[in-house]
Amino acid sequence: MLKRLVFAAAVSSLCLPAIAAPAVGDAAPSFSGKDTMGETVNLSDFAGKTVVLEWSNDGCPYVKKHYGSGNMQKSQEAATAEGVVWLTIISSAEGKQGYVTPEAADKLTAERNAKPSDVILDTDQVIARAYDAKTTPHMFVIDPAGKLVYAGAIDDKPTADPKDVEGAKNLVLAALDDVKNGRPVTTPESEPYGCAVKY
Amino acid sequence: MRTASLLIAALLAFALPAHAGDTVRTDNVEASLVAETPSVTPGSTVTVALRLKIREHWHTYWSYAGDSGEATTIDWELPAGVTAGPLQFPYPNRIEIPPLVNFGYEGTVLHLTDIKVPDSAKPGDTVSLKGDAVWLVCDEVCIPEEGVLTLNLPVSATAAPADAGTAAEFSAARAALPMASPWPASATVNGTAVTFKIAAPELAKAGLTSAVFFPTHGGYIKNAAPQLVETTGGAISITTETGRRFSTPQRAAEIKSIEGVLVTTGSDGLTHAFTFDAPVTASSGPGGEEQLSVWMALVFAFLGGLILNLMPCVFPVLSMKAIALAKDGGNPTAARVGGLAYTAGVILSFLAIAGVLIALRAGGEEVAWGFQLQSPIVVAGLALLFFAIGLNLMGVFEVGGSIQNIGSGLGRGDGATASFLTGVLAAVVAAPCTAPFMAGAVGAAISQPAIIALAIFGALGLGMAVPYLALAFSPALIRLMPRPGTWMVRMKQVLAFPMFASAAWLLWVLVIQAGPNVLALIMAAFIAAAFGLWLWGLAQRGEAGRIARALALISAVPVIAAVSMANPAPQSGAVTEAYSPARLDELLKAGKPIFVNLTAAWCVTCLVNEEVALSGQGLANAFTKGGITYLKGDWTNRDPEITRLLERYGRAGVPLYLFYAAGKTEPIVLPQLLTEGIVIAAISES
Does A9 contact B at CB distance below 8 Å? Predict the structure, then answer.
């Protein structure tokens, strides 16, 4: 029984805590973060509202694809016009690519004419870990009951080419539409694409 | 300096064989198209490589990029009649950017494509290939780059061979392409763990130094999770965590198979890559309620029941029963009735145990299979029962009163009631043997809906009864049994010893459960029982009278009293730290590495592991060196907190070994059969 030849090799050796991804359909992990004004933002502040989380990094070509083409701004506008809370989250640590000071973040929002409800600076990646955010952009939709109803990519064309915005299906807006009409989300999950979140 | 490097680059460019196209240099990659042969013939297929020479520390991506990134693509613009096959991807490497992981390439990578030249091509012409290649190249930051690449291939009437350098480069590139696995693969999901098993004796024999699984698509496994590799009995198994697609039972149930690439490196230093599509088989826990897995569970339960007949607790009982049948061979009807009654006894006993178990769990009790053995009274009772059976087999006394039937003893073949009771006895004595050997399977059964759980227990009982049933229904088989004779008496006596051994083992379990003081009590009970049964035997043989019979009955009183006093002793302080969820949380919060061992004194596997793998000096040193806290959870007595931890990892019983690397909140689940090497490897790799 014990004569078997055994070798064991744990392939990876990560020095950071492993992350347990929240499952779509479960309660969205609660969080608390600081926005660019230095104010504390809690997920619980938006109880009863639909919330979109957008992981962002202005240097990432995939983020540039959606901001450069105006796709992200249009999505933000469409969502917030319906009373949806849209939180842009920047998780790069200080010293890492994509880190921005509150002032620089506000400047980016203004320059890009972006329309999020708020921008959260998650420099210690607490929120990113809670949601197992992998890429920029990585999108999450939380319904008014606080349930995670969508996690994944912004659309179904996983490229960095702005030309691919046209003709792509915007999965976040589709999910918001389903939530608004009280339907279960048709595509509750997709493979997120983009640059890695800079943990 | 700069001029010199430019000069070298220029010289290198000239040194390239003529069948390479111009090199496009981006900030991070030098890209070019290279053909395997210097020219092509009409109607032939030539292999062309998209060669990316990537800047040091930067990487491009595999067809599935992992947690982030994007695969390289090429968009061909080809002359009429020329066609291109798909861009092929050699096996990738794991590129770790904690807590994420990417699958891709560093250094130089060749993506091969087969280009088909039409019959209409004329010698002397040139086939001009043009491709718009797009790749994402990253170190910490990611940059999408592209290059429009060209390659002109002269058409010749006769095939020209590849030059040695190019031939070697292409042959290495082909060797790096994953090939279809010639061995079957399966994936078993258990809770949040998935185990891929590839029955590849050739590979297992080659002395693997590493094996890595790469999923072809996202969401099936957690890419960054550690992969625990084992080679057992000619198979390679890789255990890791399931991905988001398994997050709910409904979604998990939709997954029929998992596609991926296995990359192995042998002790010869050679790396091979195999693609396989592993059907997701018997899964328990989330998504495990498929028909198939229930049928599998029934089959396994039946086989498990068959095996139970060979267990030291059961074999003597069954043997005596079979011998009795041989004696009664003349009466086939009685044999059949006896066989059916025995079967009913076994099955009903298993169903009764299962029923109690299900009822307790339905009532919110934290119990699992083997729960009977967590009560010292049951253990003491069973020890006495084994002892008494041993005495019976020794011939000290007979069951049933009739002296005519020496040689049948407790396996008397006379009448349905006796056979039924033998069946009950067989099921009862089988319980201590099932606990360590079948805890996993039976545990999975009781987490199923009640009706399925009962069916599985029924199958277990049927499996156990079937050999005797077959014997009872087949006069031909009975005739194969040796003739009755004095050998039967000897055999009976020999079979007493496994019973005594079982009794001794249970005594030892009892001492651990209830403390050393209980040993005096139980020994007194043993002596009283031996005395009483001896007197009873004398009376049976007519060698003693009524007084002996009365004394025998009276001696049952101290036996029962002693057993009922076998209460658990309070937990004594262990050398290792005792497991508690609070202590585990505290250590996890502090980011300390932790080894958790969940065990029970009645679990043979646990004890073997502790002896073989967990008590060596090497491991003690490794624990000290790594600052690892060793938490031990003792499930010998019932403990809901341990039951909960077991259930979290899809186990219904011990053993369970977990290793939490420093700073990690999710552990590596170690195999149930351990060696010191496995534990040390798991620790040092983390």
Answer: yes
Domain boundary among B244, B279, B314: B279
Q: What is the pLDDT of residues B446-473, one digit of tens each?
A: 666 778 778 888 888 898 888 888 888 8
- Residues B303, B266 share a domain: no
Q: Hey, is B466 helix, strand or coil?
A: helix
Residue at B2 is within a domain: no
B664 contact residues in A (CB cutoff 8 A): 14, 17-18
Structural Rg of chain B based on CA atoms: 34
Section A135-143 average pLDDT: 96
- Residue A16 is classified by DSSP as S
Look at residue B367 in the predicted model and tell me its pLDDT: 57
Written as one string, the DSSP assignment of B147-181 is EEEEEEEEB-SS--PPPHHHHHHHHHHHHTS-EE-
Give the residue from B302, B70, B82, B274 showing the smallest Cα distance to B185: B274
Distance between CA B44 and CA B22 in Å, rounded?
A: 23
Q: What is the pLDDT of residue B401?
A: 42
Find the CATH number of the domain harbouring B130.
2.60.40.10
Task: Determine if the peptide bond prior to B184 is cis (ω within 30°).
Answer: no
Q: State pLDDT tens for residues B612-651.
A: 778 777 788 888 888 888 898 888 777 888 888 887 877 7
Same domain, B360 and B453: yes
| B99/A16 Cβ within 8 A | yes
How confident is residue A9, by pLDDT bands cut at 50, 70 and 90? very low
Range of the domain at B29: 18-176
As to burial, measured by CB atoms within 10 angstroms (0-12 exposed, 13-18 middle, 19+ buried), residue B80 is exposed
Is the residue at B73 inside a domain? Answer: yes
Choose among A16, A61, A62: nearest Cβ to B98.
A16
Do B423 and B341 reside in the same domain of the chain? yes
As for the ipTM of the complex, it is: 0.79
Which domains, and CATH codes, for chain A?
Answer: 51-196 (3.40.30.10)
Same domain, B25 and B164: yes
Q: Are B100 and A197 in contact (CB under 8 A)?
A: yes
Domain co-membership, B187 together with B172: no
To the question of pTM greater than 0.90 for the whole model, the response is no
pLDDT number for residue B208: 80
Q: Using one digit for the tens of pLDDT, what is the confidence trace for B559-592?
A: 887 777 766 543 332 347 888 888 898 888 888 8
pLDDT (tens digit, 9 = 90+) per residue, B184-200?
888 988 878 899 988 88
Q: Are residues B172 and B184 in the same domain?
A: no
Q: Is residue B469 part of a domain?
A: yes
B254 assigned to some structural domain: yes
The answer to whether residues B247 and A21 touch, using CB atoms and an 8 Å cutoff, is: yes
Number of domains in chain B: 4
- Residue pairs spanning A and B at CB distance below 8 A: 166
Indicate if B440 and B314 belong to the same structural domain.
yes
- Residue in A closest to B140 by C-alpha: A97
Q: Give A12's contacts (C-beta < 8 A, 6+ positions apart).
A: B94, B96, B101, B224, B225, B226, B227
Of B186, B167, B183, give the one whose Cα is nearest residue B175: B167
Of A54, A137, A19, nearest to B244 by C-alpha is A19
Q: Which of B176, B206, B235 is the last residue of a domain?
A: B176
- Shortest distance, CA B300 to any CA of chain A (angstroms): 19
Angle at B480 between CA B478 and CA B483, to 5 degrees: 85
Same domain, B265 and B168: no
| Whether B218 contacts chain A with CB within 8 A | yes
